[in-house]
Write a structure and sequence with these properties.
mainly alpha
Length: about 120
């Protein structure tokens, strides 16, 4: 097993990808807020979460985590919801906090690995 390929690192790297995709969806919503025909884009995280959970958790029944193990990101057009700039800006702030947390956690993990290899503490 490679040191940098263990589960927490992969989960954090995947979370950075998800938060980047969410950032793109929010940017698209903000850019089209004045377009009356545009419907709000949202990111569906259910398949990603399910794929991560199924690959990391031991279950005693197939019914515990039903569904496929695919981990694709779908941008869905929500017909009922128009773009609200205040909601988008709040979502942007929350998404930025999540992204920064994941990036810092990944940075700390890699720093720990580097310290272990070099024999120095930071």
């Amino acid at each position: 097993m490679k040191i940098v390929d263990h589960a927490p690192v992969e989960l954090l790297k995947r979370s950075l990808t998800v938060y980047s995709k969410q950032q793109g969806a929010i940017a698209e919503n903000v850019a089209n807020a004045d377009n009356p025909n545009f419907r709000r884009l949202d990111t569906d995280f259910s398949e990603i979460l399910q794929g991560v959970q199924e690959s990391r958790l031991a279950t005693t029944s197939a019914r515990h985590l039903p569904g496929s193990t695919t981990s694709t990101i779908h941008l869905q057009d929500n017909e009922e919801e128009r773009v609200d700039i205040n909601t988008e800006m709040a979502d942007l702030a929350v998404n930025q906090i999540h992204f920064e947390f994941s990036a810092q956690a990944l940075r700390r993990m890699y720093s720990g690995i580097l310290s272990s290899i070099s024999g120095r503490s930071s």
